[in-house]
Amino acid sequence: MSLSVKTLAAHSPTKSKQAEAFVVSNMRRGMRIRGLAREETTEYPMPVVREAIVNAIAHRDYSIRGEGVRLLMFSDRLEVYSPGRLPGHVTLENLKDERYSRNEAIVSVLSDLGYIERLGYGIDRMIATMQEAGQPARVLKNLPPASG
Which domains are seen in the chain, by residue range? Predict the structure, then answer.
C-alpha cells in the first residue's frame, strides 16, 4: 500500500490551496462517457476534498502544539487528520445534525474568503456529493489523542 503525506503546520488560505494541490497531484484520474460527452473524473470529488481540508483547518484544536493538519494518501483511501477531539457536544452520531464551531474567528475568516459557503452543512454536502458520484460513504473516526 503506497503512502503520500502532507502536513499543514500553519493555517492560512495558502496552506489550504497547497493541501488541495497535494491531493490533486497524488490522486488517480480517469474519464467516463455521458451521452456523447467525455467527462474527466477524479478519484475523489474535489468539493469533498476541499470541504475535508477546510473543516480540518477550521475545526482543529489549536491548543495542541507541535501538530498540524495531515493529509495521508494511500492507494485505497485519503485520510485527513485534524488535531483534537470533536468540539463541544458534537459526536460521530450527531455530526450531521449538530452545528458547533471551536474556532469562530477562523471560521469567520474562511467564510469571508469564500472557503465556507454555508456554515454547518459541510459534512452533509460531502456525503451527498459522494453519493451523487456513486462512491461509497467514507468513514469518519474520532481518534484518541496522540500520546507523548
Answer: 3-132 (3.30.565.60)
Which region holds residue 66: left if phi is over 0, alpha if psi is between -120 and 50, else beta? left
Pairing label, strands 69-74, 3-8: antiparallel
Q: At what angle do helices 122-132 and 46-59 cross, to 10 degrees?
A: 160
Task: Output the pTM of the full model.
Answer: 0.82
Q: With contact defined as beta carbons under 8 Å apart, do 14 and 22 qualify? A: no
Tally of residues, the chain: 148
Residues near 58 by beta carbon (within 8 Å), at least 6 away in sequence = 101, 103, 106, 107, 110, 116
How far apart are alpha carbons 126 and 122 in whole angstroms? 6
Say which residue the cell 488535531 belongs to: 83
State pLDDT tens for residues 62-118: 898 888 889 999 988 888 988 888 888 888 888 878 778 888 888 888 888 888 877
H/E stretch holding 2 reads none
Spatial strand order of the sheet with 78-81 comes to 3-8, 69-74, 78-81
Q: Which three cell numbers stand for residue 55?
A: 473543516
